[in-house]
Amino acid sequence: QVQLVQSGGGLVQAGGSLRLSCAASRIIFSINAMGWYRQAPGKQRELVATISRGGSTIYADSVKGRFTISRDNAKNTVYLQMNSLKPEDTAVYYCNAFADGMDYWGKGTLVTVSS
């Protein structure tokens, strides 16, 4: 099993930056992939960014060039640096880990971008 503890998020003005953190309960190198998803009010959960065990990254088109996913293996933590935030980035952001053939989720953290 993998427990994921999220931190970061909050309220920011458009154009601002935030960083989300996701600390895993086990060595992240043993996890196939980790990522961030988000769910806006009235919408389905969508992929934001993922990073594989090998370090390959995938981004949603809507965040390319503005968000960066990274990880610190020594801290078993994955980060999402969000720059040039827009009101449409407002959502609950969830950390995800895919390991042992299963998906694990953090509890979610709210990001609100005001115009």
Question: What is shown here, in short?
Answer:
The protein has 115 residues and is an all-beta fold. It contains no helices and 11 strands. The mean pLDDT is 94.
How would you characterize the overall build of this protein?
The protein is mainly β and 115 residues long. Helices cover 0% and strands 56% of the residues. It has strands spanning 4-8, 10-13, 18-24, 33-39, 46-52, 57-59, 67-72, 77-82, 91-99, 102-105, 109-114. β4 and β5 (46-52) form a beta hairpin. It is globular. The N and C termini lie far apart (40 Å).
**What ranges have pLDDT less than 50 throughout 5 or more consecutive residues?**
none
- As a percent range, the share of strand residues is over 45%
**What gyration radius follows from the Cα positions, in whole Å?**
13 Å
Biggest pleated sheet: 7 strands, mixed
Q: Please tell me the overall pLDDT.
A: 94
Share of helical residues: under 10%
What count of helical segments does DSSP give?
A: 0
How many strands?
11
First-to-last CA distance: 40 Å
Helix/strand-derived category reads: mainly beta
